[in-house]
Amino acid sequence: MTVHRFFVEPAEISGDRFPIPAAIEHQVVRVLRLRDGDEIVLLDGRGTVARCRLDAGGSLTVLGRGAAEGEPRHRLTICQALLKGDGLERVVQQGTELGVAGFRLLVSERCVVRQLSPSRLQRLQTIARESAEQSERGIVPEVDAPVPFVDVLDGEAVLLFERTQDQETRLGALEPPRSVIIGPEGGFSPAEVEAAARAGTRIAGLGPRILRSESVAIAAAAVVLSRAGDFA
């Protein structure tokens, strides 16, 4: 039997007995039609899980608490340039499923889309939460508002550049980085690659084939987390 999982605010699951959190009440009662005696799992998004039983009157009784499982040891951040269409939605959904710890959105020279509305940012954050629930993560990855390209450059990051030569570094040959920087549909400009190198950011590629930007994010996450022993 499937036990449904929901992320809620930490304050909503304090104590041994409390009401069904308002944000999930409709889904629990009206959509899933769970009944008295059924169990659900609530997560506070900080790594704690509470297994609860539905009781009469719309209350929940905590049956047990513990540390949430499903979190990779290596905390990888994907720094993704803004994309056209629904590319960002795929990056966040599939990246969360793989185990990405956070997403930093950025605006680079060749971005066609240069702004992100508050409603779309909220939508991406909702996708992260729903994907974390579905994939049994213990923490919801943060999705940050876009920043300028230069703000994500540092010595612990790797910038993926599709025009690296065969003799140059591949991502899989590096120690797992803390963040991977991925460009828009048109990639990074030579000036941006030079700026990254001056900032101490390493430059690497994924191989001889050219991937869509959203595919790069997923492939990079799989490579880094596999290299770190957290995937496959």
Topology readout:
Blueprint lengths: L3 E4 L9 E3 L2 H10 L7 E5 L4 E8 L3 E9 L9 E5 L5 H12 L3 E6 L10 H17 L7 E7 L8 E4 L18 E4 L7 H9 L3 E3 L8 H15 L5
List keywords for this structure.
232 residues, five-stranded mixed beta sheet
Strand content: 25-35%
| C-alpha termini separation | 27 Å
Which residues form runs of ≥5 with pLDDT under 50? none
Largest sheet: 6 strands, parallel
- Mean pLDDT, rounded to whole units? 93
Shape: elongated
What is the element string, with H for helices and E for strands?
Answer: EEHEEEEHEHEEEHEH
Radius of gyration: 20 Å
Helix proportion range = 25-40%
Strand order of the biggest β-sheet? 8-7-6-10-9-11
Number of helical segments with 4 or more residues: 5
Beta-strand segment tally: 11
Q: Structural class, from helix and strand content?
A: alpha/beta
Short description:
The protein is α/β, with parallel strands linked by helices and 232 residues long.
What does this structure look like?
This protein is α/β, with parallel strands linked by helices and 232 residues long. The protein is built from 5 helices and 11 strands, in the order E-E-H-E-E-E-E-H-E-H-E-E-E-H-E-H. Helix content is 27%, strand content 25%. The longest helix has 17 residues, at 118-134. The two termini are 27 Å apart.
